[in-house]
Design goal:
CATH topology of the largest domain: Dipeptide-binding Protein, domain 3
CATH architecture of the largest domain: Roll
Oligomer: single chain
Strand order of the largest sheet: 15-19-14-18-16-17
Number of domains: 2
CATH class of the largest domain: Alpha Beta
Shape: globular
Strand content: 15-25%
Number of helices: 17
């Protein structure tokens, strides 16, 4: 396993660092729409005008939000935490951005247009002319080529760059991308996630570039105070017209209660919060509160190399014993979407032909008996981190006790937990992940090459590997659905994980703030303005 694949942590850490920000937690998971939206007195939130341009009706030109952990870098090739990405998407731009929503749309950014070769392997992008980096240099195709090559070499970009073969600058404003194979989600997984950096700035700054980033995005990096805050300011030469909000402050606030209080007091203007605080936040008289669906899945891991989890009947029994409605109520206050498969219904490639598990105690007991398990039986330790994962672990503990399986809960610090899980140094654990908006993003959880990385179940099935390869190269949407239905039904039958629920992202903001567009995992102040 290469270091590049082993270190593909970005998608995993979506589980820890923003969505679960006040509960104890990357390429984006999102609908771009909200499922609930109310302000003080229950009034529906207003729809805002298009992004960019000049703000009207308010003299305020700054915005304060938060991230719930410190950062290591803002070099887009080396980002490993979603909190870093939350800031970076405001500093850089990709060639094309996939805007989320009921109908996903390709939004041209640094590219004006593109063509695809007859064999589906070569994408040729025509670039906008006159786009400036924050250092005043014009963006050229050589910068795009440099950005893709450095991402290919990055230990943190394995999932996005898996189908990247090569690229070249044809001329100053033409960039050519060549793929290994035909790749249906190329825009979603690769092109939309690769941000373009200034080659000159990287070469001049070297290792200092990470905390002095230079992109083409709507905001320029200003300062970083360790454990305190990051500041950005508007890029007045931004090619899409300058942002309506001038100054951004990302405060570093790690405590869930402090986050909720800061939102209620107006210390921060916009941000997510714990689902368990939803009722209190809805009652706050000075907030607009939204609940947004996401593709984030919380699930129970089982190490297939450790007995008794090497027996599929035991894993199936555990899946039948999980009362997902009960767990959702206890952990998420009923706000989540109970799930018995890891693939969200909102992900491209999902179909109703994919089977799941029902709650069936008697079936669970039958399977344990078939596996030769005599109860009561000690399963060992179930690992988790503090917050909602720990609470979910306690509910799993109660569910499994009902079929005679006993376990002990061990709470670990997040980094240690991830390291142990990747190495296979665990028997059971509670984990969360958001693998994006396309079914192919979930291959890292279940395919053989990702053992010792995101395939923490240490599961290997050559047919699953083959089906993922077939799915990513199939361009017909209905045919792709059929391939993934076959694939995920194998995953269900093998009881690879114990899926629990798709976690929503509740967020709140000042009712005087217009929010044109939002995603569950990211924040786009360019799409906001004061009324």
């Amino acid at each position: 396993m290469s270091r590049r694949k082993t270190a593909t942590i970005l998608s995993l850490l979506l589980a820890f660092v923003f969505v679960l920000s006040a509960c104890g937690t990357t390429a984006p998971a999102a609908s771009g729409t909200t499922t609930a939206s109310t302000t003080s007195g229950g009034t529906a939130a207003t729809t805002a005008p298009p992004a960019g341009g000049t703000a009207t009706g308010s003299t305020r030109d700054n915005l304060v939000t938060y991230i719930n952990s410190d950062i290591n870098t803002l070099d887009q090739t080396m980002i490993s935490l979603i909190n870093e990405n939350v800031i970076a998407v405001n500093i850089y731009d990709p060639l094309i951005y996939m805007k989320q929503g009921e109908n996903k749309t390709e939004e041209m950014r640094l590219a004006e247009s593109y063509t695809v070769s007859d064999d589906g392997l070569v994408y040729t992008f025509k670039l906008r002319q006159g786009v400036l980096f924050h250092n005043g240099e014009e963006m050229k195709a050589s910068d795009v080529h440099f950005s893709y090559e450095t991402c290919k070499a990055s230990p943190y970009r394995g999932a996005q760059m898996e189908q990247y073969a090569s690229s070249r600058a044809v001329d100053d404003y033409t960039f050519e991308l060549t793929l290994v194979d035909v790749y249906a989600p190329v825009m979603e997984i690769m092109v939309s996630s690769i941000q373009i950096v200034s080659e000159k700035a990287v070469n001049e700054l070297g290792s200092d570039f990470g905390l002095n980033p230079v992109g083409t995005g709507p905001y320029v990096f200003v300062s970083y105070e360790t454990t305190n805050q990051i500041k950005l300011t508007r890029f007045d030469d931004y090619y899409r017209t300058p942002a309506r909000i001038k100054d951004l402050t990302f405060k570093i606030i790690t405590d869930p209660n402090t986050i909720a209080i800061a939102l209620q007091s107006g210390e921060i203007d916009v941000g997510s919060f714990a689902a368990t605080a939803y009722s209190n936040m809805m009652a706050a008289p000075n907030l607009t509160v939204n609940l947004m669906a996401s593709n984030h899945i919380t699930y129970m891991m089982m190490n297939h190399e450790v007995a008794p989890f090497n027996d599929v009947r035991v894993r199936q029994a555990i899946n039948y014993a999980l009362d997902r409605d009960f767990i959702n109520e206890a952990v998420m206050g009923g706000l989540a979407r109970p799930a018995s498969i890891i693939l969200s219904p909102d992900v491209t490639g999902y179909s109703t032909a994919i089977r799941g598990y029902e709650y069936n105690i008697e079936k669970a007991k039958e399977l344990l008996a078939e596996a030769g398990i005599t109860t009561p039986y000690d399963l060992g330790k179930l690992k988790a981190i503090e917050g909602s994962f720990k609470t979910a672990a306690q509910m799993i503990q109660a569910n499994l006790a009902d079929i005679g399986l006993n376990l002990e809960i061990e709470v670990l610090e997040a980094t240690k937990y991830i390291e142990d899980a990747q190495k296979g140094d665990y028997a059971m654990g509670v984990m969360g992940m958001d693998s994006g908006n396309d079914a192919d993003g979930f291959n890292a959880m279940v395919t053989t090459p990702y053992i010792n990385s995101l395939n923490m179940a240490r599961y290997s099935n050559p047919e699953v590997d083959r089906l993922f390869a077939a799915g990513r190269s199939e361009l017909n949407p209905e045919a792709r659905k059929a391939i993934y239905a076959e694939c995920f039904n194998l995953i269900t039958d093998d009881a690879v994980y114990g899926a629990l629920y798709n976690q929503p992202r509740p967020f709140a903001y000042n009712p005087d703030l217009q929010v044109d567009y939002f995603e569950p995992m990211l924040l786009f102040p360019y799409e906001m303005a004061w009324k």
